[in-house]
Every structure is written in C-alpha cells, then in structure tokens.
Amino acid sequence: MKIILISFIINLTLLLCSHFPTFIHFKHFFSHSRSRADVQTNTSWNAPIIWDGMFDPDVFDQRHKQDQSTVALTVFAVGRYLDAYLGTFLNSSEQYFMVGLPVTFYVFTDVPEKVPNMKLAPQRSLKVIKVERHSRWQDISMMRMKTISDIIESDIRHHSTYVFCFDVDQVFTGRFGSEALGESVALLHAHFYNLPKHRFTYDRNPKSKAYMETGDFYYHAAVFGGTWQSVKAMADACYQSIMEDKQNNVEYLWLHKPSRVLSPEYCWDRSIGYQKDIRVTRLIWAPKNSDTLGELKAPGAKKNSFNTNGRPTTCLQGS
Ligand code: UDP
Ligand code: MN
C-alpha cells in the first residue's frame, strides 16, 4: 500500500513537472506592476495587447529558447518592390527580428538572382523562392496567400514552430522579439488604433464575403503570424474567400479572434507624427519611393487589412 502510494506521488510529481510549462500561461508574464495605464493592454476576450513596458523581454526569450521555438519569416518582393525595399528590410530584420532564436527567411520573388547576399547570424538562414509576377493587386494578394499555404505545407511545418508574414515596404527599427509570438497574432493598424469604431472603414457591401457591421479592432495585414497551423488555416481561408468573391474585392480573412495583438509600435507610420503612447517604434513603414515604384499603386487601390469575427474586411487606401 505504502509503495503504491509513494509511486502514485512520484507519478503525480512527474506528471506535474512534465506539464509544468503549460500551467504557466504566458499572460502571467505580463507583470501588473509593469502594465501600462495609458493604453488598452487586453482585449475583451483576454488576449494581451503588447505594448512597451508591459513585459520583460528576457523572460520571453528564455522561455522560447527553453521551448526551442523556431520562426519562419515570409516576405514577397516582386517587380519593383525588390530593388525598392528588400535590402533594407532584410538587413534591419537581421538586427531586430527574433534575435537569438533560429529564424528562416523565405523570400518570394520573380528575380531570385537579384536578392541581395546577406551575412546571417548562426542558426539563421535564407531561402529564395521564385514566383510569378502578377500586375493586379487582387492577383498579388491571392498569390501570396496560396504561396504561404503551400510553403507551410511543403517546408515550414517541418522546421518552424511559428510563421510571421510581412510586407516588404517596412524597416525594423527596434526589438521585434519573442514577446510577439503566439498562437495567432494580429496587429493594430497605426492609422486606426485610437479612432472610435464607427470610423473604421469596413466593407459595407452585404454581398461581399468581407462584409461586416462592426469589428473589435482594425487590424493591419502588413504583419500577421502565429503557429504554422494557424497561419496555414488562415491563408487557406483567405485564398478560398478571394476565389469565391473576386468581384467584391475581398482581400483577407481572419478566422478566429487572435490570441495576441501587437500594438502599433510593431508597425508604425512616422508620417502620423508624435503620439505619446508610442514609446518605441519596432518596425516602421518605409517611405513610398515613387521614383522606383512609379504608378504601381493606383489611387483607391485596396489596402491590406483584416478583421476578426470570422469575417474579412478591406479598406480603401488613404481612408
Ligand atoms: N508586393 C510586391 N510587388 C508588388 C506589389 C506588392 O512584392 O508589385 C508585395 C510586397 O511585399 C508588398 C505587399 O505585397 O509590401 C503589399 O503591397 P503594398 O505594400 O503595396 O500594400 P500597402 O501596404 O500599400 O497596402
Ligand atoms: Mn505595404
């Protein structure tokens, strides 16, 4: 009896120890004493919104090193976007993106030989994949989602825990670290984060798959991520939805509410000017280089943004 009891206790201890990491939910790492009173740090469904000052970067880094987290970054640089933005994007990401964790960069381009040669830190590598060039933004969006889904299936899922997908027209300017990793990660749009909901310019066409009345937040699709499973599910859903709804200009679909939301520090537009709640900028919009990009973006072209509630959304450029 005694032996059975002892072995039971040992088993229980082993069980508890082996499951210990799952008992500590990441949200406990956001210390209350550090929390920010001037901004919203939690969603109504209790996902953290990540702001500077809310977290200890070392705690997240240690935890992800222990868990052996690995990260894939996908970026498209097709046509004139390659010369205009890719070099700066990649160089800055080497300096600031998930430093200390193994990262694989997946660069999708129509001209692989023009991808700059990069000196990467140990455990970081770059893969260049050739894609077709499309001229219509709808085809570009659709192609991106299909390509992301395919590369997760064929490659990423065998090597990486998390996937982050970025627009190329951006520059890292500060730590964009493991605090941003989560099951599904969305980003608050720099131009909308402090506006009342009625100012969000969702798609109001009831026939469109993108139609929605109101949403929680206005997310920006220039950065999104999550586990490979969740990013793949989202990319598949977007692709399906764009295929079915092409005339209605649907762009992106967010299947579930994100488990983690990044503040606009993680994708800031400097042209907005000083905002007292933005204490650091970690990634900024690259200035549009009209010389290299020419008339690539027609006025009124759709911006890439999306929303939760199981419904996608779009918004008009400049709105
Ligand atoms: N893109 C590209 N070539 C193009 C158009 C778009 O490589 O001709 C990629 C690139 O990564 C870009 C992203 O698609 O950052 C989204 O397009 P864009 O940045 O023009 O959209 P915006 O940020 O203006 O909504
Ligand atoms: Mn962009």
TrEMBL record:
<keyword id="KW-0472">Membrane</keyword>
<dbReference type="InterPro" id="IPR029044">
    <property type="entry name" value="Nucleotide-diphossugar_trans"/>
</dbReference>
<keyword id="KW-0812">Transmembrane</keyword>
<keyword id="KW-0735">Signal-anchor</keyword>
<keyword id="KW-0328">Glycosyltransferase</keyword>
<feature type="compositionally biased region" description="Polar residues">
    <location>
        <begin position="304"/>
        <end position="319"/>
    </location>
</feature>
<feature type="binding site">
    <location>
        <position position="189"/>
    </location>
    <ligand>
        <name>an alpha-L-fucosyl-(1-&gt;2)-beta-D-galactosyl derivative</name>
    </ligand>
</feature>
<dbReference type="GO" id="GO:0005794">
    <property type="term" value="C:Golgi apparatus"/>
</dbReference>
<dbReference type="GO" id="GO:0046872">
    <property type="term" value="F:metal ion binding"/>
</dbReference>
<keyword id="KW-0732">Signal</keyword>
<dbReference type="GO" id="GO:0005975">
    <property type="term" value="P:carbohydrate metabolic process"/>
</dbReference>
<keyword id="KW-0464">Manganese</keyword>
<keyword id="KW-0808">Transferase</keyword>
<feature type="binding site">
    <location>
        <position position="81"/>
    </location>
    <ligand>
        <name>UDP-N-acetyl-alpha-D-galactosamine</name>
    </ligand>
</feature>
<keyword id="KW-0479">Metal-binding</keyword>
<keyword id="KW-1133">Transmembrane helix</keyword>
<dbReference type="Pfam" id="PF03414">
    <property type="entry name" value="Glyco_transf_6"/>
</dbReference>
<feature type="binding site">
    <location>
        <begin position="76"/>
        <end position="78"/>
    </location>
    <ligand>
        <name>UDP-N-acetyl-alpha-D-galactosamine</name>
    </ligand>
</feature>
<dbReference type="GO" id="GO:0016020">
    <property type="term" value="C:membrane"/>
</dbReference>
<feature type="signal peptide">
    <location>
        <begin position="1"/>
        <end position="19"/>
    </location>
</feature>
<feature type="region of interest" description="Disordered">
    <location>
        <begin position="300"/>
        <end position="319"/>
    </location>
</feature>
<comment type="similarity">
    <text>Belongs to the glycosyltransferase 6 family.</text>
</comment>
<feature type="binding site">
    <location>
        <begin position="167"/>
        <end position="169"/>
    </location>
    <ligand>
        <name>UDP-N-acetyl-alpha-D-galactosamine</name>
    </ligand>
</feature>
<feature type="binding site">
    <location>
        <position position="169"/>
    </location>
    <ligand>
        <name>Mn(2+)</name>
    </ligand>
</feature>
<protein>
    <submittedName>
        <fullName>Alpha 1,3-galactosyltransferase 2</fullName>
    </submittedName>
</protein>
<feature type="binding site">
    <location>
        <position position="201"/>
    </location>
    <ligand>
        <name>an alpha-L-fucosyl-(1-&gt;2)-beta-D-galactosyl derivative</name>
    </ligand>
</feature>
<dbReference type="GO" id="GO:0016758">
    <property type="term" value="F:hexosyltransferase activity"/>
</dbReference>
<feature type="binding site">
    <location>
        <position position="269"/>
    </location>
    <ligand>
        <name>an alpha-L-fucosyl-(1-&gt;2)-beta-D-galactosyl derivative</name>
    </ligand>
</feature>
<dbReference type="InterPro" id="IPR005076">
    <property type="entry name" value="Glyco_trans_6"/>
</dbReference>
<feature type="binding site">
    <location>
        <position position="167"/>
    </location>
    <ligand>
        <name>Mn(2+)</name>
    </ligand>
</feature>
<dbReference type="GO" id="GO:0031982">
    <property type="term" value="C:vesicle"/>
</dbReference>
